[in-house]
Amino acid sequence: MQGSLIYAPEKFTVNRIWYRVTIILTIGVLAFGSISVRAQQASTLLDWLSAYCPDCLSKSSRRTGVYVLESGENALLARAWLTERAQATIDVQYFIWEPDNIGILAAEALLAAADRGVRVRVLVDDFLLETENRVLANIDQHPNVELRIYNPKHHVGVSVIERFYYLIFDFTSFNQRMHDKVAIFDDHVSITGGRNMADEYFDYDSVYNFRDRDVLLAGAVTNKVKENFDEFWSSSLALSIDALLEPSATERDESFRRELQAYANNPSNFDPKVRESIADVSTRIQAVVGDMVWTDVEFINDAPGKVSTSLDLKTYGRLVEEVSAAQRSILIQTPYLIFPEDGIALLAKKVDEGVRVRIVTNSMLSTDNPMAFSGYQQQRASMIEAGIELFEFRHDASIRDEIITKTPTNTHATISLHAKSMVVDGARLFIGSFNLDPRSAQLNTEVGVLIENPTLAKALSRQIEKDMLPENSWAISQQFNPDHLASWQKNVEIWFYGLLPITSLL
How many angstroms separate the Cα of 262 from the Cα of each of 116, 255, 266, 268? Predict the structure, then answer.
């Protein structure tokens, strides 16, 4: 989700019945071994690579194994499996970490890893952090866990008076956020992409889920991912819990962990389909290893504290280079589509050169960010005039049945686009956290991977093109868009945002 100064993305409170009946306990169960696959586990992640892929170890020193995680279920199972098998270190970095099912169980899984001696570091942006101070403090109190908050000027340790002070007198820093999403296991395997740590990113929310995308990386490029994490971790913007909270708020509460453990070990919290997935997780992970494509991968990232005046907007600049180099085609998938200055002109130039440009983004019905949609709405006609082929994702897209793990409570959940991907000339691809909007370009820090590999590029193209099919998206023209199908309330809200001079904040 993309945050802004005025608008905080819609949050959906999950019904408590959902907590009891159809929760995904993948992480918690794996961590405690309630449904164990330990008999087949290797002793380290390196041993795992060697056991499942004998020549992967030799490859990993020079190249990177790549596997694209399209479904929320696979993305979650991969994180769970790697969390259980990590032996030395786990580093995680997220824009959003919700205190919901997934967020709670991810925390418990990390604590379980810390119990067996794994050093765990957690870095979370402050802007949308809704977790209680008690929870943050007790996670941080574990001797093998350290938790830091990035740019805490909104919530953690910040009073209302301080918040208004930052808003008025330190606006640029107040509004600059860490939008990175990264998990690193034993400095050798990493995951990055669009998913935050919350129910809706892993297809288990009963009301609203995201069509999202991650990429699992094993081998050489993880060194660069780790270097970026370490830079953020050492930044003056990353503050410890002890530095933010009063001593009385950081006292250890022994009941906290017991509550987590009781919840994770309660068999009544399982959905049968989840049980099936967990029971077969080792087989599925072996398949992932077998399907990895070993290739060269470029990790791109922004430095901590990036602002629009920075001379080194590395992620944005690198993506512009790729677009500028396109010879035949540009295929883009982005949840929020607001071109920075000269962005439409650049793509219009490519169209004039004979390059086919196609973009799929959210419709008014599927978007979780009405403010961002208002910016897109104002540019839409210009995009079409420039020759860009536009598609808007349906809230009832049929692909929901393919990518969302079906449970009794999420069968009819609304689906929204959250994947951030690009394919150039059918040969080069990008997957990461970058939205095609001014915030990602000039304000928020972003990460992602650029890969030149026709096999992976064609596979990703097929996925994005599937999302563009009539059953999944509307084709947009000067004569047609689906705005009228949305409620009048949403139309009025977006119209109002369009009146405000806030384009640079979207």
Answer: 19, 11, 6, 11
